[in-house]
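Re: beginner question about structure tokens

> Can someone show what the tokenized structure looks like for a real chain? I only ever see the sequence side.

Sure, here's an example I had lying around. Input first:
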Amino acid sequence: MPTSLNVTPVSFHKGQKRINLRAALETQQYKTSSVEMTFGELARAYLAVHYNGADMQLRKWIDLLNNRSAWEVGVEELALAGIAMIDNGYAPGTVNRNFSQIGSVYRWAKQQRLTPVGFISPTLSQHRYEELMRHIFISDEEVQRLIDGAAAHEDRRFQVLIRLLAETGCRFSEVAERRWKDFDLEACSIEVLHTKTKRARMMFFSQTTSELIQRVWISRPPGELLFESRRTKGAVLTYRKPWNKLRKAIGREDFNMNDLRHHRAKLLLESGSTLAVASQTIGNSSLILYRRYGHLESQAMQAAAKASWR
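And the corresponding structure tokens:
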């Protein structure tokens, strides 16, 4: 059989774009070979463009794998490191998040076409440790105190962040990394195309929060980050210090920003939403929410059934 790319041209339907595939492939050839990098170089390149707190988790891995080829880090090597972390007191969930962070580095490398052809991240086949379900309760009054207390911070954006986390059920990164083009202040909605669950989501907030946003930000260029550092261009603020001060002030040092998501899930279920709707709203699996709040859905269904008995 002939192997030449010089094949007889095929007919095209009206409107179909014609392509010279040979020429197109030739322009791509320079992208088919990998970039030789150490793990340390790759991780630092990732951190240079991702201001998401990953430096804290990646630091230990850079120390361990710094001069190793990024593409030769093995599955077994990571697995043994995970066991060592468990043996030294790390929580299973923390180890899982470390593996996920390394996986994010490799996914980014693949998007940038840095990896060898056919490269598979060593994190994909890693054993994930079973995590104990973290049950934490916070009252509506305590959440309101968090919102009110955040207003005392000199950066008014902090209160907007807390309000958005409490009202939308978003993860911190899903709010903190948003740009103005993702917001519709009239519809009081946020569109998040890239989420942890790999599914786009639309989140909603109150009219009160929309009005606050419009007071805090006079200028709203579409491509600008809402919570960008005023010192470092492109860096997302974490607000760790004001958050720690705030939760200490209300006597809830055990409460994390992302726990506001589960408070929102509880409110949704208590108001009659199904587990399916609540899980889609906050971006968690229905199974996880069932384990946490299945009894609330049952109570809502019972109330609805009783209301139908006329």
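Each token stands for a local structural state, so reading them left to right follows the chain. The longest strand covers residues 189-192.
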